[in-house]
Amino acid sequence: MPHILLINPNASRATTDMMVAIARAELPAAYGISGVSAGQGPGMIVNADELAAAAPEVERNWREAGRHSVGAIISAFGDPGIERLRALDGRPVAGLCEASMLEAAQGGRRFGIATVTPELAGVIGEKAVQAGVGGLYTGIRLTAGDPRVLATDPQALEEALAQAVRECVEIDGAQAVVIGGGPLGQAAIALARRFTVPVIAPIPAAVRHLLKSLQALEAAA
């Protein structure tokens, strides 16, 4: 059975387990998946310094736990270490940010980001440009307050993100909205059911992106 490794750059086993469950629900039965967490760093990455510091830990996790995996998912919105992993041996690697932006922009849709981390706004904008969809990016809408505190209250988190989604659509003119964060995975699934515009949950988007890459490799073999 081909195996996928989900790497959580946040140092939280509970968050990793949640992410793996969401990813598993998106995978065909023929695939296996497991998750690893950062061994050091914060339980939730909220700024650019923490994101950059996570990249070596992501590479370490891939080298140590990914030997027998056909591909990897980097499950933090900002994709720390993605280029490091892609440069190692050519196995496909999907990042939440890149994959969800590409999906949101399909068909030329204008898209926004709803998230909880104001200190990552600049990084997220740069990622849109790097992914080649900067011209379709309508900007970011943020929840209020400490993101780590908000993340401990699932209902409050969902409602705060719902308001950010509305602002993306009604103020910025977004035709699709990405929920920007791996630890926001459960809220993203719930919000996707609440809106008529496409709300992109990043973990399922990364799974779909990785599967397409794997299928392309198989077809080329």
From TrEMBL:
Pfam family, one: Asp_Glu_race
Gene Ontology terms for molecular function: amino-acid racemase activity
InterPro entries to which the protein is assigned, alphabetical: Asp/Glu/hydantoin_racemase, Hydantoin_racemase-like, Iso_Racemase_Enz_sf
Protein family: Belongs to the HyuE racemase family.
Stated name of the protein: Aspartate/glutamate racemase family protein
Organism of this sequence: Herbaspirillum frisingense GSF30
